[in-house]
Design a protein that fits this description.
This protein is of the alpha/beta class. The protein contains 16 helices and 15 strands. An eight-stranded parallel β-sheet has the order 6-7-8-9-10-11-12-13. Strand 3 (32-37) and strand 4 (40-46) form a beta hairpin. The protein is globular, with a radius of gyration of 21 Å. The structure holds N-(iminomethyl)-L-glutamic acid and fe (iii) ion. N-(iminomethyl)-L-glutamic acid (NIG) is lined by residues 76, 105-106, 109, 216, 244, 247, 292, 319, 321-324.
Length: 407
Amino acid sequence: MPKWDLLLTDVQIATMVDADGYGAVGSPDALAAVAISAGQIAWIGTAAMAREESADVVRSLGGRWITPALIDCHTHLVFGGNRAAEFEQRQQGASYEEIARSGGGILSTVRATRDATADELFDAALPRANALAREGVATLEIKSGYGLNLATELRMLKVARRIGDETALDVRTTLLAAHTVPPEYSGNADGYIDFICGELLPAVADAGLADAVDAYCEGIAFTGPQVAKVFNAAKDLKLPVKLHADQLSDCGGAELAAQFKALSADHLEYTSVAGVQALADADAVAVLLPGAFLTLGETQHPPVQALRDFGVPIAIATDCNPGTSPICSIQTIMMLAARLFGLTPAECLGGVTRNAAKALGLNDRGTLAVGQRADIAVWNTSHPRELAYWHGTPQLAETLLAKAMLA
Ligand code: NIG
Ligand code: FE
């Protein structure tokens, strides 16, 4: 008989192993149990069977639901300053694109981020990361993209990694140098792309500071051919790619992401059916970002039904950033994905577990199954459907995380 490290008994489990529904194991009349060894799930069965087995520590969770710990797969959580003044301008009628074209928008955060020390960036980002952790997030992606020069992009990525070092969160970093054209290259986007491909990307890869490479394909950012250059350079360095695609217009972003076998294409409000088909063929994840849709007052909805029809996995994320999604609540995002995009509560939960893991290229988490990482969220709700329903009230009882178990 195996001797497990930990046995969690008297639980109901939303395993999230199926593409539909919760993959529930256990019921109030027949509670389940999960055994953990070496930070991995070692066994799942009934509580009645589990009592026969042995473990170093046995904990009854009193019938509570457990799910995979949550994953926020798209954030820009490290940045200097904030953009509340632009929020005020937008409330008075200015558009995001107008503000961006007049030197505000992303560029104003670039100025503030370049001016900030690593400690200042860390101190500002940490409460945001902690807010996500308090809602059950265990894996967090953080993008660069507000430095746009070598020193500041490296600083952002190091600060992001430091958040992973100093919290219970597992942080994945993404280089988003192709976010906008920095002032030094004003009017010379191609020159900046050459700098990214020739200097910045190799230096970041050399320092081992990025797990993936992202770009912003949009009228106010970079063209398809410019993004393709960055993606080719990333592929040469064996880094997976992702894309901010079709957020404000259909620029063929989904097709471009698919062409490069991207892990994910994100936003997708203006993606065509052909783009959805391309994502399906490439086995890419669609990451929907309802916080940005809400904040920008968008009216064009992402093609949710087409994504379902073609079987494209849908993830959702906070997109936490100072311009378009000043939101550090995964629970709010689940509620918004349901209310704004029509996702079911089960799709919302799959979007921050199984499909979010896939969007980060991680196959060791996002579901509760034997062999998976023991990243577990324990809830006070009477059913996991409540996670996309409540808004503003904490539902998490605790998280049990492999990182802490192995420390
Ligand atoms: O995901 N779309 C581009 N990037 C961010 C916005 C960044 C900003 O406005 O600062 C986004 O929405
Ligand atoms: Fe984003």
